[in-house]
Design brief:
Elements (H helix, E strand, L loop, with lengths): L13 H15 L10 H8 L3 H13 L3 E4 L3 E4 L4 H25 L2 H15 L2 H4 L13 H8 L3 H7 L3 H13 L4 H17 L3 H29 L28
C-alpha cells in the first residue's frame, strides 16, 4: 500500500483527507513503526502545504499513532514485541467478554449491519488475493462494532482508548501472513454467526480463538528476535526501533 503516500490529495476537507491518508499509510505499514516523518517529503508526496499536514500530524499524535520527541521530531509510534504480546493477551480476554455481551445486547439490525460490513470486507481485492485485510477505523472496523455492541462503557473505554489505533497497525500486519486474510474473514463470520444465534459462550470462544490465531504472528516475530539475539559476550545489536527506514527521501524513491 505504498501508493497511499504517492497520490495527490483532492480538495475536500483537506485536513481530514490528509489525516486519513497518513493514518492508512501507518496502519498498512507503508510508514513503519519507529520511522521518522519528514514534513517536507510528506507534503511533496501528498501535494499539500505544511499547514494542513501539521494539523493532520497533531490529530494523529492525539490518536497515539505518532509521537513527538523534543529536538528529534515526529516518529510513528511503536511497541516492543514483548509489550505487544502482553497487550494482545489482555485484548483476547477483554474482547472475548465483549463478544459475549454483544450476543446479548446487539440488536437484530446491528447484527445484520455487521454481516453487511463483512460482505464489503470480503470484496476487498487484497483479501481475495490473500495479501492483507485492511479495515478503516470506528464503524468500518469489525472489532469496533462488536466492542461498542457490548453496551459496557468501561469495557469500551479500555478497548477503544489510547491503544486502539496503535493496535490496528499490528492487526493489519498479522493479516499479511500468507493465508491469514481470508482465514480472518471466515473467523469474523463465525463470530457473527454466534452473536446472531444469541450464544454468548460461543461468541466469546470464537472471538478468543480468532485473536489467539492473530497473535501467532507476533509470537513468531518474538521467536525470530530471540533466535537472532547475540550470544553472551557478543556485541549488542542495535535496538529494533533504530532499525527503521528514514522518511527523509521522497516516498516515490522508496517504493518496494
Amino acid at each position: 500500500m505504498r501508493e497511499l503516500l504517492d497520490q495527490k490529495v483532492q480538495a475536500q476537507s483537506l485536513v481530514d483527507a490528509v489525516t486519513e491518508r497518513i493514518e492508512a499509510a501507518i496502519i498498512s505499514g507503508a510508514l513503519e513503526p519507529g520511522s521518522r516523518l519528514s514534513e517536507q517529503a510528506l507534503a511533496a508526496s501528498l501535494g499539500v502545504s505544511r499547514g494542513p499536514l501539521r494539523e493532520a500530524i497533531r490529530r494523529l499524535e492525539g490518536r497515539k499513532l505518532l509521537q513527538r520527541t523534543p529536538n528529534i521530531g515526529v516518529r510513528v509510534a511503536a511497541l516492543s514485541l514483548k509489550d505487544l504480546n502482553e497487550v494482545l493477551q489482555v485484548r483476547e480476554a477483554l474482547e472475548g467478554m465483549a463478544a459475549a455481551l454483544a450476543a446479548t445486547h446487539m440488536t437484530d439490525a446491528e447484527v445484520t449491519a455487521l454481516k453487511g460490513l463483512l460482505d464489503k470486507h470480503g470484496q476487498q481485492k487484497s483479501v481475495q488475493e490473500g495479501k492483507g485485510y485492511y479495515q478503516e477505523s470506528k464503524d468500518f472496523d469489525f472489532h469496533f462494532r462488536i466492542v461498542t455492541g457490548s453496551r459496557n462503557e468501561r469495557l469500551i473505554e479500555m478497548l477503544m482508548g489510547d491503544l486502539y489505533h496503535l493496535l490496528r497497525i499490528y492487526r493489519y500486519k498479522s493479516s499479511t501472513k500468507p493465508g491469514r486474510a481470508q482465514q480472518a474473514l471466515h473467523e469474523h463470520e463465525d463470530i457473527v454467526a454466534a452473536i446472531a444465534s444469541r450464544d454468548p459462550a460461543a461468541a466469546e470462544q470464537k472471538m478468543r480463538q480468532h485473536l489467539r490465531n492473530a497473535r501467532v504472528y507476533v509470537e513468531e516475530q518474538l521467536a525470530a528476535e530471540a533466535a537472532a539475539a547475540p550470544t553472551p559476550g557478543a556485541a549488542k545489536s542495535a535496538p529494533a526501533a533504530a532499525r527503521v527506514r528514514s522518511l527523509d527521501a521522497p516516498a516515490a524513491a522508496r517504493r518496494r
